[in-house]
Amino acid sequence: MTVYIGVDFHARQQTISYLTTEDGAIQHLVLLHDKAEAVRAFYAQFAGQRVVVGFESSGYAAWFEELLEELGCEIWIGHATYIRQFAKRRQKNDRRDADLILELLHTGDFPRIHRYSRSTREMLQQLRYRQRLVKMRTMAMNMLLFMASSRGVSMRTQLQSKRGQAKLKQLPLPATLGTQRDELLSLLQTLDEKISTIERWLAKATKEDEAVQRLQTHPGIGLLTSICVRYTLEEVGRFANTRKVSAFAGFDPMQDQSADRERMGAISKQGSRWLRFYLVEAGQVAIRKDADLQRVYQRVSRRGGHAKAKVAVARRLLVRAFIMLRDEIDYAEFQRRGVAARSSRGSA
Fold first, then answer.
1. Where are the domains of the chain?
2. Yes or no: is domain 2-107 CATH 2.40.30.10?
3. For residue 289, which of 214, 218, 224, 341 has the smallest C-alpha distance?
4. pLDDT tens string 193-225
């Protein structure tokens, strides 16, 4: 017997519509999240049966997913926009939303999206945490640089070295600013240590990951970019072609077409912003070492400027990374195949 459970999930409560294939009767229930035992008891009562739980993607549902995994339930996460498109009425409330999800589960029309494995979620969480620490470090450094500039001292990149920080400590400042300087320098040191710890953890965790090591053979792709690409894409077999993977990352241009008029706009930015960020940064290094990417950058920058050229290079870098992951090849083999393909076209 299969139990289908449609959940309209919120931060403090969830509205449930569920049915069993045995009697087909739909039942409703509201569970408050501060009563954790009641939530567990509801889902645990179906032990030994196939339980399919569907709900919209949410940033608050990590604990709920872990609970369902522990109880052996199938977790189906749906695209909120596509779920809403199935609604037959304009009225919207929690019970109607739960009923709609249940109906889509039962009929097989549920717009299910890919769900990352636990290990992948952990890796991406560490990567995002590191990036937030870097942002905090940048804010602290900017405050210190402004403090020095206000006293007629220009330090620029010197603050990143111990010598520069020692120079800033010797700068005569009023008592209040002096205290702020000391606290910010201490914070800067703490953040540096935490960032280094996370980077060592990431390097150790992916040391035996062949896909991550393979990506790093490409110029410009370092540890952080390779981890972001590898674990954001995760199962590359779910992408039919390079256009699909570009759209997943938000590098596909938005199209506005009607009759004979067609306009291609900016990229959609629908995917992971961190993936785009790392690829754009990696592309700036790659164009110095890869002749093909350098030609792409120069051609696009002449026509559309520096910003568009960076995005174009990042997109091609993503396509290359996808091919390397899909075909399980390194950069040298990728280049060899490219040369062979060009040679065959030239002799045809």
1. 2-107, 118-205, 211-347
2. no
3. 218
4. 999 999 999 999 999 999 999 999 999 999 999
